[in-house]
Design brief:
globular; three-stranded antiparallel sheet; alpha+beta; two-stranded antiparallel ribbon
Length: 79
């Protein structure tokens, strides 16, 4: 279970998908039946969170987010 600013909370098991949008500089959107949480792309620990969700909920759940993280990693390694 995670809390963001004490206002929103989702359990890891409830998250059905993790998507990415380039809106407002890039955000990951965690979706569940209870609602959504938007996290900035450059948040500390976001890669670890996506990795954790991939192992707990399956690769299919986080396919788009993993692709974005892989592209970001490749861009960083180029420089």
């Amino acid at each position: 279970m995670r809390r963001w600013n004490g206002r929103q909370m989702l359990k890891y098991e409830e998250i059905t998908s993790v998507e990415h949008t380039r809106f407002l500089g890039g955000q990951f959107i965690l979706k569940s039946p209870q609602g959504t949480i938007q996290l900035p792309e450059n948040s500390t620990g976001i890669a670890e969170l996506i990795s954790l969700l991939s192992t707990r909920n399956g690769e299919k759940c986080c396919a788009q987010a993993n692709a974005v993280l892989a592209k970001r990693k490749a861009d960083i390694e180029r420089f």
